[in-house]
UniProtKB/TrEMBL annotation:
Keyword match Signal: yes
UniProt keywords, alphabetically: Signal
Signal peptide residues on this chain, from the entry's feature table: 1-17
Organism: Streptomyces albospinus
Protein name: Lipoprotein
Lineage of origin: Bacteria, Bacillati, Actinomycetota, Actinomycetes, Kitasatosporales
Length: 134
């Protein structure tokens, strides 16, 4: 009798845990919105990879990963890559789009940013949602 009762309790507990997991998504230029994405494309040449998230579903979530920046000098095809491990991607706010919830703003910080990179990436910027792609 105890085994039957235990088996009945475990699925219910698992279902409650699954229901408590926030399904807020984050979209980027790749147009593949995801919950806790492992990558985040900022431009066609720059982005983050290997993201590990904390506080997902809260008002602000933080992902840490590696930022890759193409200097695009003398051109993007011939540019050098700057690799910055330990960059932080912060996301905040939630908005609804097409019946789903999305974080609505992001910023990226890294102590190794140049002043130009800090200006380009460390300001709060509107995050994309599927309807932005028309």
């Amino acid at each position: 009798m105890a085994l039957v009762l235990a088996a009945a309790v475990v699925p219910a507990t698992g279902s409650l845990a699954a229901a408590a997991t926030p399904t807020i998504r984050l979209d980027d230029l790749s147009q593949h919105p995801a919950v806790k994405p492992q990558t985040f494309a900022v431009t066609n040449h720059d982005g983050l990879s290997g993201l590990h998230w904390s506080h997902w579903g809260a008002r602000t979530a933080i992902g840490k990963g590696t930022m890759t920046i193409n200097t695009c000098k003398p051109s993007c095809a011939e540019g050098h890559l700057r690799i910055l491990p330990g960059a932080r991607l912060q996301v905040r706010g939630v908005r609804k789009d097409q019946g789903q919830r999305y974080y609505r703003q992001y910023r990226i910080t890294d102590p190794a940013f140049t002043p130009q990179e800090r200006h380009a990436y460390s300001r709060w910027t509107d995050a994309l949602v599927p309807s932005d792609f028309g």
